[in-house]
Amino acid sequence: MADEPSLGELGRQIGTLQVEMHRRLDTLNQRLTEFVPQNLYAERSQYISERLSQAQVDVQKVRDLYDQLENSFEQYQRDERDRRERERQSRMYQLTVPILLALLSAAVAIWAVVSK
Q1: Contact, 10 vs 2, CB < 8 A?
Q2: Is the pTM of this model over 0.70?
Q3: To 5 degrees, how large is the angle CA 19–CA 25–CA 30?
């Protein structure tokens, strides 16, 4: 029994172990407190970057659709301008040809009367 510690010494050793255990648990809790926010921050950052990437893709799609719509509208305006020009020319020919034929007929009639 001489090698065994006394009850007082055992109490001091248990007290020292408890203090050391509390110190280690406090250190562990502090590390966990730091790790969890860092982990959450990393997860949140990754989520935000993925959402931003998706938003950029969506914005690019909208931009492409807008450009396509704008090009289609410009093409429509050019086609409409050409159609109106063709209609104007058609009306002009429809108006001038009969007038020219009438003038030609009058000229032939006058020439026929004058040449008799």
Answers
A1: no
A2: no
A3: 125
5: left (phi over 0), alpha (psi -120 to 50) or beta: beta
Which amino acid appears at position 96 of this protein? T
d(C-alpha 95, C-alpha 114), whole Å:
29
Q: Residue-wise pLDDT tens for the chain (116 aa)?
A: 567 877 788 788 888 888 889 998 888 888 877 777 777 788 888 999 999 999 999 999 999 999 999 999 999 999 999 999 999 999 998 989 889 999 999 999 999 888 87
In angstroms, rounded to a whole number, what is the distance separating the alpha carbons of residues 90 and 46? 65
Beta-carbon contacts of residue 5 (< 8 Å; ≥ 6 apart): 13
Could you give the C-alpha distances from 44 to 20, 39, 47, in angstroms and in order? Answer: 36, 9, 5
